[in-house]
Design goal:
Order of helices and strands: HHHHHHHHEEHEHEHHEHEHHEHHHH
Strand content: 5-15%
Radius of gyration: 32 Å
InterPro entries: AAA_22, ExeA_AAA_ATPase_DNA-bind, P-loop_NTPase
Number of domains: 4
Structural class: alpha/beta
Largest sheet: 5 strands, parallel
Helix content: 40-55%
Protein name: AAA family ATPase
Number of helices: 19
CATH superfamily of the largest domain: P-loop containing nucleotide triphosphate hydrolases
Shape: elongated
CATH class of the largest domain: Alpha Beta
Strand order of the largest sheet: 4-5-6-3-7
Number of strands: 7
CATH topology of the largest domain: Rossmann fold
Length: 423
C-alpha cells in the first residue's frame, strides 16, 4: 500500500496530533520529520502543524480559536420584520447605524437570520410590528405626561380615565377593609392610605402608563401587599388585575400554571407548554396588571419566563413584582431589571405619622395620647404596620376576655412579649 493510499485511510484530529507532538517535545524534542508525518495524517501543510504546536506552547490551546459570531439583536429583528424578511434591507440598516455592526458582511447577516429561524424564532407580520411600535410610543407619551403631573397638583392629560388616573385613587383617608379585596385587618379596623400606599400607587400608575414593570420591595411586615391591594382595588376602566400566587421554589412549569390560574382561563391547564403559553399570551392581549407577590422566591429561569411574557408583541401588560428581597432577585436578571421603570421601597412608618395612622387604623388607638403611641412604637412595633395590626388583635382579645381590663403599660408590656420570640 502506497503513502497516498495510507494517507487516505488514516487521519488524525488536531487535538490528538498536537497532544502527541507535545509529548515528544517533552521527551526530547519535535523534529521536522515528526511534523511532516503529522501534517500528512491531518491533511494540512507542515507550517500549519508548526503553528498548532506554537499555539499550544504559548497559549495552551489545542483547538481552533473560535471567532466571535454575529448575532441579531431584538431591534435588528424588528427591522427585519418591518422589511418583510428582506435581509438586504436589514444589512443596509446595520451599515447606516454602525453600532458595533460595521464591517459585517451580507453573508454573515444571512447566516444569522437562518440560525434564528432554525431555532424557532418567528418573524411577526409587518402590521403587527407597526401596531406594537405605535402602542409603545403612545404608552411612553402617556408615561411622560403622567410623570409630569405627579405631585405638582397639575392635572395630567390622562387623568380622565387612563392609567395615570390610578395615581389619584390613593389620596389621604381610610377605606373600609371590605372595600379592599385581599386585605385582612382586625375587626373594626380600616385600611389607611399612608404615604407608602400613595407612593406605591404612583409607581404602579407609572408602570401602567408606560406598559413597563414596577418592583415594590422592603422588609417583611411593612405593608407592601396591602399597599398594592389598595392601589389596585379600583383600577382604571379597561384594565384588569391578576394576582399570581408564587409557589415555594417554583419551576418554570409551576409558574406557568400559576399565571394560567391567575388569569382565570377557561378549561383545563394544557399539558403542552407551547399551548399553555399561547393561551396565556392570548389573555394578555387585553390591558392587564400582572402582580407577582413573593417575587423573591423566583429563580432566574422563572424571572426570564415573566420577561418573555412581557416582551411578547401581543401582550399589553404592566408587570408588578413585589416582595421582601424582590429587588435583589430582579437584579440577578439584568435584562428584566433594565425594564423596571419604577423601583419603590416601602419603609417603616415615620415617627411623625405613627399616631395619626394608628388612630385612623382602629378606634382602640384613637383615645391613646401621642406620647404613649410613640412609646409603643419605640418599645415594640418600630414602625412595622404588621406588628401594629397584631398588637391591635391581642389588645382586643385582652379587653374582651379580662373583666375591667385597663390599657396601661403593664398590659401592653405583657402583650409585647407575645409579638416577638424570646431572645
Amino acid at each position: 500500500m502506497g503513502e497516498r493510499e495510507l494517507e487516505g485511510l488514516v487521519s488524525v484530529s488536531r487535538p490528538v496530533l498536537v497532544g502527541r507532538l507535545l509529548q515528544l517535545d517533552a521527551a526530547g524534542g519535535v523534529t521536522s520529520a515528526h511534523v511532516r508525518a503529522g501534517a500528512q495524517l491531518a491533511g494540512v501543510h507542515p507550517r500549519t502543524v508548526w503553528r498548532w504546536v506554537e499555539a499550544a506552547r504559548s497559549e495552551g490551546r489545542v483547538e481552533r480559536r473560535r471567532r466571535a459570531r454575529f448575532e441579531l439583536s431584538d431591534e435588528a429583528w424588528e427591522v427585519l420584520a418591518q422589511a418583510g424578511g428582506n435581509v438586504s434591507v436589514l444589512y443596509r440598516h446595520l451599515e447606516e447605524c454602525g453600532d458595533g455592526d460595521a464591517g459585517v458582511s451580507l453573508a454573515s447577516v444571512y447566516r444569522a437570520v437562518q440560525r434564528e429561524l432554525a431555532a424557532g424564532r418567528v418573524l411577526p407580520d409587518r402590521a403587527v410590528v407597526r401596531r406594537a411600535r405605535a402602542e409603545r410610543e403612545t404608552r411612553q407619551a402617556l408615561s411622560d405626561l403622567a410623570v409630569g403631573g405627579v405631585g405638582t397638583g397639575t392635572p395630567s392629560a390622562c387623568a380622565a380615565g387612563g392609567p395615570a388616573s390610578l395615581l389619584t385613587s390613593a389620596g389621604r383617608g381610610t377605606a373600609p377593609a371590605g372595600d379592599v379585596p385581599g386585605v385582612v385587618v382586625p375587626v373594626g379596623a380600616q385600611a389607611v392610605r399612608t404615604a407608602s400606599v400613595r407612593a406605591v400607587a404612583e409607581a404602579v400608575g407609572q408602570a401602567m402608563a408606560a406598559g413597563g414593570a414596577a418592583c415594590v420591595f422592603g422588609d417583611a411586615g411593612r405593608g407592601k401587599t396591602v399597599a398594592l391591594r389598595m392601589a389596585l382595588s379600583d383600577p382604571p376602566v379597561g384594565w384588569g388585575v391578576s394576582w399570581v400566587r408564587v409557589p415555594v421554589r417554583p419551576s418554570v412549569s409551576e409558574l406557568r400554571r400559576a399565571v394560567f390560574e391567575a388569569l382565570v382561563l377557561p378549561g383545563r391547564f394544557p399539558h403542552r407548554s407551547a399551548e399553555a403559553d399561547e393561551r396565556i399570551v392570548g389573555a394578555l392581549d387585553e390591558a392587564r396588571v400582572l402582580v407577582v407577590d413573593e417575587a423573591q422566591r423566583l429563580p432566574v429561569p422563572c424571572l426570564e419566563y415573566l420577561q418573555s411574557l412581557w416582551d411578547h408583541p401581543q401582550a399589553r401588560m404592566a408587570l408588578v413584582l413585589c416582595g421582601a428581597g424582590s429587588e435583589r432577585a430582579v437584579a440577578r436578571v439584568p435584562q428584566l431589571a433594565s425594564r423596571v421603570c419604577a423601583w419603590q421601597e416601602v419603609g417603616r412608618l415615620a415617627g411623625s405619622e405613627v399616631a395619626a395612622t394608628v388612630s385612623a387604623f382602629h378606634p382602640l388607638w384613637a383615645g391613646v395620647v401621642g406620647g404613649e403611641v410613640a412609646w409603643i412604637d419605640q418599645s415594640c412595633t418600630h414602625g412595622v404596620f404588621r406588628t401594629w395590626a397584631a398588637l391591635t388583635t391581642h389588645l382586643q382579645n385582652a379587653l374582651l376576655t379580662v373583666p375591667d381590663a385597663a390599657v396601661d403599660r403593664a398590659l401592653l408590656r405583657r402583650l409585647f412579649r407575645r409579638l416577638s420570640p424570646p431572645v
